[in-house]
Write a structure and sequence with these properties.
The chain is mostly helical. The chain is built from 4 helices and no strands. The relative contact order is 0.05.
Length: about 100
């Protein structure tokens, strides 16, 4: 199957076109994913998020009232984000009509 795709790319590209060195060269997301894997900060950010979730979960078990505060904070944050999106969309609409 890989050979078929490589042959199609060579045929479609015309003269002077060479296929990529690997099957991943055909994937448009491959470079982005490769860049993410090379950066050490990507792995650390996932670890930090996991640790924070564990801590928040433990706090909710110890003091269930924290869950109410977290839900309230999340709803306020979502509301602010929706207001910002609505403002952005209105500005976009105003630009397109003028």
């Amino acid at each position: 199957m890989i050979e078929d795709v490589t042959q199609q790319r060579t045929d479609a590209g015309g003269p002077g076109t060479t296929p990529g060195a690997s099957p991943m060269a055909m994937c448009p997301m491959a470079k982005m994913c490769e860049g993410m894997m090379k950066k050490r900060s990507t792995g650390y950010s996932a670890m930090v998020a996991g640790i924070l979730l564990i801590i928040v979960g433990a706090l909710i078990i110890v003091e269930p009232r924290i869950l109410v505060w977290l839900a309230g904070a999340a709803l306020v944050l979502i509301g602010v984000i929706l207001l910002m999106m609505a403002r952005f969309i209105r500005r976009l609409g105003a630009r397109s009509t003028s």
